[in-house]
Write a structure and sequence with these properties.
Layout (H helix, E strand, L loop, with lengths): L3 H10 L5 E10 L8 E5 L2 E5 L4 H13 L7 E6 L14 E8 L6 H12 L4 E8 L6 E6 L6 H13 L2 E6 L2 E10 L2 E5 L3 H12 L3 E6 L15 E4 L3 H5 L8 E5 L4 H11 L6 E4 L3 H13 L5 H4 L15 H18 L4 E3 L4
Parallel strand pairs: 9-15, 10-11, 10-13, 11-12, 13-14
Antiparallel strand pairs: 1-2, 1-5, 2-3, 4-5, 6-7, 6-9, 8-9
Helix pairs in contact: 1-3, 5-10
Length: 346
């Protein structure tokens, strides 16, 4: 699914009127996290979510009722209703959100952000909102910030553990989001597991590339969610067409032991954050011994491989195996600093 910033940019460029909802802050147990967003039109919610329930309902009502006036709304929702009440929520928190009826005013900023993300550059999206007049919004996109001390302090915190921060400064709220390009999922093997995982990867906001050497399986119709499909008689030639960096996750699920080993040899010394290979424990030990014996890698390097691949959830079917692999990818991605990935696909 497209990220809402990408969807927002597309609709602005298509001259479609849109209202952009952005969750700025939460206290307590309010659902969703700051940075959650949603798009509304005159009829109601189009894409995304601010958290569902009473917050979503209020945001949608305001988006529709204020559509003619186009006055931005800075709102707070209290989630502290009593459990016996028919309406409201009992999460026990407070959420603050913005409804921007004129996001097209920030078109140049959104385009700059999109351009940098396509070049694999991370950055910070700053939204400065006047608390007394929310119609006054100044957005900026920076990849090498030299800003006020308090903003720099917040950015330093983001690098460690958060995706966003909200700063109160005089009459303004400054909302900071750290955004990164969507990670690349390289699936070597377009068989049944590769096909199922391709779909799961797309749902999880990976930019999915599939490499295979079998025209029978390497068809766009079988991996419709793939952003890139490479068919090469030699798997090595296909893999080498891709830039494997620290934002890459590699899954090896080819048709057999030999081709699995060929693919693993191509990537084992790469910068990939994650490399996983399908196979039994016995097979993995044999491959490990062979790779070390032939000096393809060290024991320490091989021990970094996720093999057998996937979380142990007792998988039996193809779809269950794909889900176990996807779950392991999520776990590994979430072990990295907590960044919010942006899908910059068309």
């Amino acid at each position: 699914m497209k990220n809402n910033y990408q969807q927002l940019l597309t609709q602005i460029e298509n001259k479609e009127k849109i209202t952009f909802g952005l969750l700025l802050d939460k206290k307590g147990s309010a659902p969703q996290v700051p940075g959650a967003s949603a798009l509304f039109n005159q009829q109601g919610l189009l894409h995304g979510t601010l958290g569902g329930g009473i917050l979503e309902m209020k945001a949608e009502e305001l988006a529709v009722s204020h559509w003619p006036a186009k006055d931005n709304q800075l709102c707070e929702v209290d989630y502290t209703s009593d459990i016996g009440e028919d309406t409201g929520a009992i999460c026990g928190g407070i959420a603050t959100f913005l409804l921007d009826f004129n996001p097209e005013a920030s078109l140049s900023t959104f385009k700059a952000m999109h351009s940098d993300l396509k070049l694999n550059k991370s950055g910070y999206l700053l939204s400065r909102i006047n608390k007394n007049n929310p119609n006054k919004i100044n957005r900026s996109w920076v990849t090498n910030p030299i800003l006020e001390d308090e903003v720099n302090e917040a950015i330093a915190t983001l690098k460690d553990n958060e995706t966003s921060a909200l700063i109160n400064k005089n009459d303004d709220l400054i909302f900071i989001e750290y955004l990164s390009p969507a990670p690349q999922l390289l699936i070597v093997g377009a068989g049944h597991i590769g096909q199922a995982l391709c779909h799961q990867g797309a749902l999880l906001n990976f930019n999915v590339s599939v490499v295979d050497n079998r025209p029978k399986y390497a068809k766009q119709s079988l991996v419709p969610d793939a952003d890139l499909l490479i068919i090469e008689p030699n798997l090595k030639d296909g893999i080498q067409q891709l830039n494997i960096d620290t934002n890459t996750y590699v899954v090896i699920v080819t048709q057999g032991h030999k081709s699995d080993c060929e693919a693993l040899q191509c990537v084992i010394k790469s910068k990939a954050t994650y490399i996983g290979m399908i196979g039994s424990k016995r097979k993995i030990q044999q491959v490990k011994g062979d790779f070390i014996k032939r000096s393809i890698c060290s024991e320490e390097e091989f021990n970094q491989i996720y093999a057998p691949i996937g979380l142990n959830i007792g998988s039996k079917t193809v779809q269950e195996i794909a889900i176990s692999i996807a779950a392991e990818l999520i776990a590994e991605r979430n072990r990295k600093k907590n960044v919010r990935f942006i899908d910059i696909r068309n």
